[in-house]
Here is the input.
Amino acid sequence: MVDKKRPSTQQLRDDLKLSFQGSGLKTGEAEQGQSEDQLMIFKRFVEDAQDGFGYLDREGRILYANPATYRMLDEPYNADLSVKTIYDYYPDEIKKQLRAIILPTILREGKWSGDLFLKTAAGKLIPTSNHLFILKNEDGRPFCLGNVISDLTERTRTEEELKKHRDHLEDLVSERTLEIKKANSELQKEISERKRTEVLLKKSEQELKNKACNLEEANTALKVLLKQREEDRIELEEKVLSNVKKLIEPYMEKIKHLSPRGRQRIYLDIIEANLQEIISPFGRRLSALDINLSATEIQVANLIRNSRTNKEISELMHISVRTVEFHRKNIRKKLGLTNTSANLASYLSSLP
Here is the structure.
């Protein structure tokens, strides 16, 4: 188990004193006590710092490192780092950069700052911010290199998270932009389609107006024609009725007197009844029933309406009574009177 016990304040003071003695820096006896106190305070400040602090000789050997540096390098605190150099804690590519660029820059300008990857004792690479500078004594002569190291792992992780969120946001923005472009394109198409539809609707409305106007004119003309046709129909009915009364009925009366009885009188009554059917609304109604009634059924229905018995109908039409009954049954069925108590003769007489 590695002993991680930290050195005492006196040990730290002695280390720092020896370092300054090795550099040639001297202090007077009167100032020695005060300087030692100041050095102790500075050493404690450096020791408790969160960032790494150390100083190196010209060859890069580690003369001193604070506890934060030990933690950063993943080294036990009682490890002797003076046997190592700064190059032991950087990858090969950075070692070349230190020798070729960074150290010459420090010797020339007195300092250098930048970000480097640090390699821990376990071989783990961690991002760090480095500030290297020359420490001088009171005579202005350089005696070592100071190095302040900040661990950028958290900052790097945060930056990576921010970059990840930023990339995700950019992807969302790009995706949303594409959606908006697509929506705008579809909207433009819809607007164009609506405009085209509006033009077609206006054209259709105008065509409908023209057709409505033409239809109104046609309706007006049709009304005139229908009115004229109705007047012509009424005039024709009046003429037919007048001609029957004037030209046919007088002769019918004379024939009745000449044939007061017998079959001729029956035929005459039928002829007179049929004439009445022709000139009456029933005649027109009965003709409208041609779709449902056959010609023979219409003849039978006409005789039934005139109160003729089955035997009379049989004699007049030269058919059997059973055939007349068969026709009566079909007539009732076609007129919807089956299984009812309605009288067929009364129903036929009630037709308008």
The chain has a mean pLDDT of 79. The longest strand covers residues 125-136. The domain at 259-350 is CATH 1.10.10 (Arc Repressor Mutant, subunit A).
